[in-house]
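Box 3.1 A note on notation
Throughout this textbook, protein chains are presented in two layers. The first layer is the amino acid sequence; the second is a token string describing backbone geometry. Keep the layers aligned when reading.
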Amino acid sequence: MTPHPATRRITAAFTDAGVTGRLHATDIDTGAALGVGSDTPVPTASVHKLCLVATLYRQAHLGLVDPTRPVDIPAEGRAPGSTGLSVMRDAARLSLRDLASLAVAVSDNTAADLLWDALGLDTVNTTMAELGLTHTRAVHTMRELYETMREDAAGDPAAYTDPAAVTRLRALDPTRTNRSTPREITALLAAVWRDEVCPGEYGEELRALLGLQAWTHRLAAGFPFDDVRVSGKTGSLPTLRHEAGVVEYPDGGRYAVAVFTRAASTDVTLPAADAAIGRAARIAVDALRTLGT
């Protein structure tokens, strides 16, 4: 099959930003799709929280979990992170669904780990398999993921900016960390928007939750329109910048997009790499919208 002309522009956007990129985009209603490396296994980082919260709401729909169940959160033993409960100093008490809101809205690692503890890795993996996502698998919690990074860096934070040391991080190796493919992540999002993960009230609540994310510098930056809604989840680790989400237009068009990138540079701040996610996603969605006219 001849690649869509848009794929060359997407690849150029990644190259110009100094990243290697993988992308898949699909029209949720027609099934039309295009991609660059759509079936390449990728380390998901915090994008895997999509699988986690989708599992919570599917379990709630099946009557196996009460999402309003409160969880006591001690002050000690929290996962590393720069937001949410990970940086708070006192004990707290929140429901499972409020933990899910924090895990998505500000990518709270502690909130995510409390959900992992409540649901279990096996439950999340089984749910993904039931949805047909056979290449999407979690092998550790956020706490455990960061522990592998500390071990691989021998406890030296400077190692995260050393290109040779970064290549040794298990967290960046899709054979040894939480993983998926761009195609499967968009399939998960499309299933959420088509009520195939959980219908009715729980489906509506899950979609609303996925619209809470605070970060707008990646996927949403490609769609700077007041009447276009972008719901998504970012993921970041040394050299990795990702986002997956759903773009909804006022004419009813709905598009699931997943973009996974790895930068050549180990710099923590790379605005061009962040912007490339939105740029590539916009090219893909524009191409799909043209197919629909």
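The radius of gyration is 18 Å. Residues 67 and 96 are 5 Å apart (CA to CA).
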